Amino acid sequence: MKVVVVGATGVLGQNVVPRLVEREHAVRAVVRREDQAEMFRRLGVEPIIGDILKVDTLLQATAACDAVLHLATAIPKPGGARDWSLNDRIRREGTQNLLAATDRNGVRRYIQQSIMLLYGDRGTQIVDELAPLRPAAHLQSAADMEAFVQATPLEWCILRGGLFYGPGSGRDEGWRVEAQAGRLRLPGEGHDLISLIHVVDMARAVVQAVEHAPASSIYNVVDDEPVSYRTLYHYVAARVGGPEPEPGGPTSLPSLGCSNARIKSEIGWSPAYPTFRSGLAD
């Protein structure tokens, strides 16, 4: 299968591309710079200099292909200005550009990365894909993105990923550094839930969706165990020999646990890292 990856240089894309190659797909990567293009050429991947915000480059990228993957994001870095405007443009304008190019070139299969945070705060409830979306204001562009995809006649699949950790994400490394220094604080009392996904398992889900997902499908891509921050942070602190995290830290994310039962039963995916315990063992 000839597969176009938009967002190939991101944390997820860099894990997806080699897995597509080893599955013997012909991969085309959309990149913004020549140095990135050269790296992909050396890996046996066809690079296209392009930008999801420039529709003419997407027409070239999606020509004569079998599947299109939208993995592009521009998530603001922690501690910075938290400017979501570029990410919003990618989710709204960029998605519409890519959908238009995909349709114009007659490509039928389309995979969209999304986020499980769209379900909003659910307390201790574990939600599946039938739960209505309750996006926070800064996540409305992700809900709009999904709506654009669902309005098309393409054979689309939406993958709502959990909170990434693992190589390149910086998240678990940050936890370890903060825990070792005694600065890791529980959000509130630490009872809120979080659904995690190792970047390797998210990449495996993307590849599985390319090959097997039925048209008009939506899947939560999370590990097997929604976990409280208290359990997670105490585990991290114990592994690095840091003090037990104290409560009272800021609460920035909704309390949300998600089920992965549908993706397991429908396309046969299961996480290589079933819980944070194995995912943090490396």
Sketch the topology as an H/E string, one letter per element: EHEHEHEHEEHEEHEEEHEEHEEHH
Taking the alpha carbons of the first and last residues, their distance comes to 33 Å
- By secondary-structure content and strand pairing, the structural class works out as alpha/beta
- Order of strands in the sheet with most strands: 3-2-1-4-5-7-12
Helix content: 25-40%
What sort of overall outline do the alpha carbons produce when their principal axes are compared?
Answer: globular
Number of helices: 10
Mean pLDDT comes to 96
Percentage of residues in DSSP E strands: 15-25%
Main sheet? 7 strands, parallel
Number of strands: 15
> In terms of per-residue confidence, which ranges show pLDDT below 50 for 5 or more consecutive residues?
none
Detailed description of the structure:
With 282 residues, the chain is of the alpha/beta class. Helix content is 38%, strand content 21%. It is built from ten helices and 15 strands. The strands form five sheets. The chain has a seven-stranded parallel sheet, with helices on both faces. A two-stranded parallel ribbon has the order 6-15. Strands 8-11 form a two-stranded parallel ribbon. Strand 1, helix 1 and strand 2 form a beta-alpha-beta unit. The protein starts with a strand and ends with a helix. The model has no long low-confidence stretch (mean pLDDT 96).
